Structures are given as structure tokens and as C-alpha cells.
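Continuing the batch. This is chain 6 of the set; chains 1 through 5 are on the previous pages. Same settings as before, nothing changed between runs. Recording input and output for traceability.
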Amino acid sequence: MLSCDAGGLSTAEAQVRNKRYGSNEIRFHRARSPLRMLLEEFLALFPLLLLASSILSWVAHFILPGQGYELIAAALLAVVVLNALVSFIQNYKVEKMMMSFLDYIPREVVLLRDGVKILMDAKEVVPGDVLFVQEGDKICADGVIIESSQLLVDESIITGESEPVAKQTAEDEIHPDMQAASGATVLKGHGRILVTRTGRSTSIGAISELSQGVQQDRTPMQKELADFVRKITYLAVGIGLAFFAIGVLIGNPLWTNLIFAIGIIVANVPEGLLPTVTLALTQSSVKMGKENAVVKQILSVETLGSTTVICTDKTGTLTQNKLHVEKLYLDFQEFDADDAEAFDNSPGAPPMVEIMALCNDVITTNGARGQPVFQGDPTEVALAEFVDAHAGYDSLSSRFTLLENQPFDAKHKYMWSLYHTQGDTRYLTVKGAPDVMMDLCSQVHHGGEVREMSEDERRMLVQRADRYADQGLRVLTLAYREVDDGARAGNLVFVGHVAMVDPPRPEVPAAVQACKSAGIRIIVISGDKGETVSYIARKLGIVTTPKVITGETLDAMDMEELVETLRGGEVVFARIAPEQKLGIVAALKEMHEVVAVTGDGVNDAPALKRADIGIAMGKRGTDVAKEASDIILLDDNFATIVRAVEEGRAVYDNIKKFITYILTSNVPEILPFIAYVIFPIPLPITVIQILSIDLITDILPAIGLGNEPPEKDVMLRAPVSRHERLVSYRTFLRSYGIIGLAEAGLSFVVFFLVLYHGGWHWGMATSGNLPLFAEASAAFLATIIFCQIGNVMACRTNRQSAWSHFARFNYWIVLGIIVEIGFILLVTSVPSLYRVFSTAAVPLWAWTLIVFAPLVIFGIEEMRKWLVRRGVHFLSA
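Output for chain 6:
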């Protein structure tokens, strides 16, 4: 199948294979039609509820014209359309951003075709092609290494392994270090690859297919809003049908009963809730964007606030994805790399720094500020950076003249460089794997002198290197020898061990502690070796004494065992394959956890998609990871997640606050219809007035509640339980049974006082005397609106007293109160508006009662919170 001669494939054969195997192309983001995206905005339960209410209002208008139902129908339709447009615009911006990411396959590669090296589009690569790669290239297909010259490859986006892999030329038996994987990056050297798999058949393509087969659950907010829509629908329809039946029983005309049933149903639907939720989520998305977190779906904002477990990758997420000197062992003492003064004062420091600089193949360029920038093998870059900080890499290297060197290779496991020094002496510097180097060392540099190494010292030095390796550190042993003849690596002088690690990001420890304070568990899942994963997790404070579970151990577990292990205590996962990471996420969801998964590699994509919320890295993240995620961190900073969690929790709290606020006015909107059907009284409120409350006066204060800053204890409490409802019976008790009834009671008191003051008495005909009825109706409307002023101020906190929040300026709430007062003054003082809103001038004496309504409502709500803080939990909202 892969047969090709020394000249590579012929053009004709390549075309045949292209037809057979297809293009070497994987498109990870499938563009969505803008029209389909827009239509999807109308299909959620809440828009459908509002559309149903709009249709009912049209029906009422045709049955009984002139009552304003057509205006309600048009307004409800406008709310749905405007909300859909706002949400669509936000999502379309993200869609455009996703389409701007290039496919992860490189665009152009060098192939051997018809015996000639040519530059071709990577899509044209087929199995059997000979592919040339060099430093900096991304490998575009899977294959076998047929020629390798110091070829060092970073495969972390596929495997999660932080250390680069030295590739060898394939022999009779093919090993992993003789194979190349699509998506990997060449860090050093060059080579030739015989392509074996292309496109979706590659390792990166297989993971993409696995990712696209994963079904994503609805977000907690979607579930909560669906639950709320069901509850409000049952409540509205239930009350409407009940009073339709009551009207029939007491002998009211059928059409009259139907109209009022529709009025009750529409009055129960909080028309302003949908745009308020969308605006709150959109504004939070904008805030998070300023904090370097791009939200792909606005409902994902709240999901972060509900997160109970964060499953995080190690390489590039918790760590900097670059090696760094962590510890040094010389003169039989251990030094911390950050303790520069102690190291520099050690007698063994000068030869150690020299070996780090001289036995090194890094390429040096000048940075923006004249500082050297090192490129090459990550190990050698780490050593060069350490030397530069202590002695100046260029100044030290310039004192020696290179004569000869042997690069590091997988066979010998060491590197040597020979330099000319003063006189005829030549200086041989060597670095390599401890197990090999200790056999080559017969002497030791100690206290500034060279002497023979004892067997006890040799055993101790070997044990020290093993200890570092057991901690997950990468260890190199440094040695030297002065030679007079040909360079030979033997009879060396041991100088010291250097232990390196991919260091944690400096901001991560504080973020980890913030997660712990917030009751969020962090689980590290990595493709790296267990010792390294455990070391980093312990260093960051994620765990103290973790149980390390490898991919091999995980394979032997069934779902029940995995769940028990996750419940059992501290664990970290190492050498994990993509499908295994997916299984871990599934187990956590089986435990009813709300799971966030972070990652940047192709191997992370299936788990990112399966999680409740997937968080991809923006800088280093692959297109596959970005496509599978819900949020993209532009700064690859784990600490950004904590700020996003805080924002998510604030959004949840705020949505709960303004739902409570909006539902409250339903009671004084519904009860007048019920009273009008049952009792011989004028209708206290009209459908137009209800619409003005829901879509004019309540909207801005509700938006203000949606923009309240996080409360001080938001990151000091446990995540929201899956069993806690956004809108529970307690919410309805607070809105309908306490504050709503209080608002309705105050409004009816003012309404009847105006009627009786104007000469009306119980049993008087409800037709005629329209100016008095309009005055009373205007007073009823004004009382509701002023009650809502007290309500919005009380709703700024859930449990704590809201008195302290008076000093916290909220632009939207202040603007909303101004609009509320301005609106009611306009409709009760401008004669041209009287007919539109069925109002009239309210008597001055009535205003003295109305203006005290906010204080009454605020006082009742403060008393409720006071009782909740003292253990009366059934009153909590």
C-alpha cells in the first residue's frame, strides 16, 4: 500500500491515492448558517412561552377589540424578536472568531515527488509520500521516521507529555520513538517521514471524530429556565382556568370569562424576564471578555458559577510549558534554584555554570530590549537561561573556543563538547542521563578541589538523582575533564545534578486557594508521567498526599470503582488517553457534579465537549480544543478561571434577584382581574397598564439587579447544589405570598380610598363615572410602581440587610427609579396620555400615601431577611 521508490511517489500515483484516501484535511469547526442560528433563538422554551402569550392576546383582541390586547400581542412579539437579535449578535461574533482560526494542519510542506523536493499544499499529502521536516515545522500526517538527525519533537498536544521526544530512524521493529504524529511540532533537528495515515485517519483526526461523537448536556441555566417556564406556565394556566370556571359558575358571559382568563394568563407571564436574562448574561460575557475569557455561548457564564469540580490539564495550563531549573545538587549539598546567593557562593558553582553554558547547542538571538533569547531543545534553553541569570551566557561562552562536539542522542544518552583553553589543555564538558553519567565519573569536584569518588559517594549521588526523578523532575548530571589528546567521555569529574521541571504559573497557587475557599475541587488529569503530575499538584497546593492513577490502572476499573475512587480522597491522573479522560468526566457527572474541564491539546477535546463547561487555552490551544469548548482563555491563565467563576456566581445570584423582583408585581397585576370577576367593582388595572409595568418601569431596575457586583462572600461559600432551584417554591412564597400580597394590599387600599373619596360605594354600577375610575386606576398603578422602588432596593441582597447597599451606586437602578417616577408622573399629569393608559390626575392627598409605599415594602422584606438569618429557613427566597 505504501510502496514508493527512492524518488518518492510519482505525480500520477499521488493523484490516484488522493482519490482513494481523500484530502489530508480536517476541518474542526463546521460553519453554522446565520439564518439557522437566528431561528434557533426562537425555539427555546421561554421565547415559545412569550409567543404563545402573544397569540392568546391576538385572540383576545379579535374577541373583544379596543381593550389594548393587540398592543400586548405586538409588544410580546417585539420582546421575543429583540431578545433573539441581541443573543444572535453575541453568538455570531463568536462564530466569526471561530471561523478565523486556521485549520491545525499546516498549509505548505516539503515532499519528495518524482525524485524532486517540492513545496506543496499539505492537503495534497497522501499515504506513501516522503515528507521532509525541520525545526519549527508542524507535522501534517502520521508516519514512520525513515531518517533522523537530532530530531526532537513536541507531542504534548496529542499525548499531554510535557517532555519532548527524541526521534530515531525506524528499524525492523517499529517503536513509538520511531513514529511521527500529525499535529506535533519539530523543536530541533530535521528528518524524513514516510507518511502512513492522512486526514481523519491520523491520530489527531481520530480524536476529532471522538470529540464530535460526544453529546453535550444542557447547561444548568438552560435546565433552570426550562423549569421556571414550566412552573410559571402551570401557574398561569391553572389560575386562568380556575377563574374561567368560577366566572361560568357565577353566570358571567362566556366571552367575558375567556377574555379575563387570557388576561390572567398573560399577566402571570413575566414579559421582561427574557430580555433581562439575556442582557445580564451578555453583559457578563462582555466583562469576562475584558478579563481575557471569550464566552462562546452566553448561557455558559452562569455554568461556571455552578461548577463543583475543575478537571485541569497540567502542561501549559497549570504550568508555563517550558523547562526551568528547579534544584541543583553540588558539593554534596542541595540548592534551590531561586536562592541565587547561596548557589553563587558554593565552590562548585563556577564549573557547573561553565558546563551548562559550554555543553549546550542553543541558538542565541537578541530580544526586544537587547536581552538574549534562546531557541532550541527546551532542556538546553532552561540551562542557558539559568547561566544567563548568574554569569551572562554570551560573556561566559565567548571565553572558550569550540573544537568539537557530539550532540545528545537517544542511544548514548549524553552530550559532550570540547573547548580550547590556555596552553595546550583542552576542556571537555559533558552532560547526560544520571544512570549513564555516573558510570563515566571516577572523580568528584568537592570544595573547589578534585579527588577520587568513593563507592559510598557514588551510591549516594545515584540515590539523589533517583529521588529527584521520583519527584517528577527531569535530571541531568554534569561533569568535565581536562584532556591532552582526543576527546573521550570517560574518567570524568562529577560536578553536580541539575533537576528541572515545567514550572507552575506564578498566579496559579492563589487561584487554587480561591477554588478551595469556594468549595470547588480541582483534579489534575495529564498525559505526563505520574511523578511529574503528583509533584506539580502538590507544589500548587491542589493535593497533599495524592493517589496517582495511571491510564493502565484506570483501564482495569469499571465505572463503579472509578466513582468510589473519586469519592475516596485526593487523586491525580497520569498517562491518560483521550477516551479515558472522557470516562473520568462521565464518572464525575454520574456523581452529579457540575464539571468544568480545561485543556489545550487535541487530546483534551472530547472531555471539553462532554463537560458541563469546557475551557480551552487561547494562546497555545489547538483549534480542536477551541471548537469543543464553551469558553476560551485568551491568556492561557488558570487564574482567569477563578475570576470567571466569581462572575458566574454573581450572575446566578443576580438572575435570582431580578426574577424575585419581576415576579412580585404579578400579584397586584393578577388579583384585580380576579376581584373584578368575583366582586361588583371597577377593574383596578388595565392590560395596557400591566404592559407598562412589565416592559417600561420594571425593565431598567431588573437590568440594574443583573449588574450588581458580586457580594463579598460569593467565593467563600459552596457551589450551588444541583438540588437547589433557581426558582423554587420559596421564591414564589416570597414574591407571591409576602411582598406581592403586600403590594397588592397597599394598591387596593389606595384604590378604594380614592373611589370612596370620590363618592363611590360598594354595589354601585361599574360603568359610567369614568373619570373617578380612571383616578382610582391611576392611583392603583402608581402604588404598584412605588412599591417596586422599595422592592428593587430590597432585592439587592438575598440574605444580608440591603441598608448598606444604599451607598453602592448602581447606574441602572438609579436610572430605572428615575424612569419609574417620571413615567407615573407623565401618565397622571399629561391629559393626552390619559386615554392611552386609562389614567387621570391622582389626588394630592393620595400621593402622601403612595410615596410611603416603598418604605413599607422595604421594611417587610428586611424583616423577612432578619428572620431568615435567625433560622426561619422556609422564608428564604
